[in-house]
Specification:
195 residues, alpha+beta, ten-stranded antiparallel β-sheet, 10 strands, 39% strand
Length: 195
């Protein structure tokens, strides 16, 4: 009986701690009718990023993140039309266009990790090459493998409007969050086994 009570108390402290994990918001700037740049930090995971986000009317979105902790650039893409089946990893082509007919600026192949049937995570984006391609882009297309529909996302003017705000967010907050660490203590394995 005492062991069950102790386990219940430990579990409730752990769960309440997770529910109360503080999400810090420190930047928000609308850059055009489709894109907004945010700055946020998660005290539980120790991750702090500045990111541009575009939402589509159907609930699809893309977020392009720049970590303030380690400088990594990565993206999360959610498309409500996707029904990705199969392996947990794949490759796509990311093409950047200037808006003119046959206006391909640049493109690159990226690997992604499948989070669910509608969501992928693109890691290890080369910041310099990526930002150079995005700067003058009027829109971009993620060319998906197989029969998964492609996803196109536009800028009202050019990608430079979003990238300028992203750079501003990074400049204002990078020093503050460079040493950002998780705030919650991890539950020891011995305790997890008893729960």
């Amino acid at each position: 009986m005492k062991l069950r009570l102790i386990n219940a108390l430990l579990l409730s402290v752990f769960l309440i701690g997770n529910l109360n994990a503080e999400e810090l918001s420190f930047y928000e700037k609308e850059t055009d009718n489709w894109w907004t740049v945010f700055g946020g930090a998660n005290a539980e995971t120790g991750q702090a990023t500045c990111y541009g986000r575009a939402n589509k009317k159907d609930g699809s979105f893309i977020q392009i993140h720049r970590s303030l902790v380690d400088g990594e650039v990565w993206a999360i893409v959610h498309d409500t039309e996707w029904e990705i089946q199969g392996p947990d990893r794949g490759s796509l082509r990311w093409n950047f266009f200037n808006g003119l007919k046959n206006g391909l600026i640049d493109g690159a192949n990226f690997d992604y990790v499948l989070k669910d049937k509608n969501t992928i995570l693109i890691l290890q984006i080369e910041p310099k090459n990526f930002s150079q391609a995005l700067w003058n882009a009027r829109y971009f297309t993620l060319v998906m493998p197989g029969n998964v529909p492609n996803m196109s996302v536009s800028f009202e003017r050019k990608g430079s409007s979003m990238l300028s705000a992203l750079a501003e967010c990074v400049k204002q907050n990078e020093k503050k969050f460079k040493s950002f660490k998780p705030s919650l203590e991890r539950v020891p394995d011995a305790v997890k086994e008893q729960l």
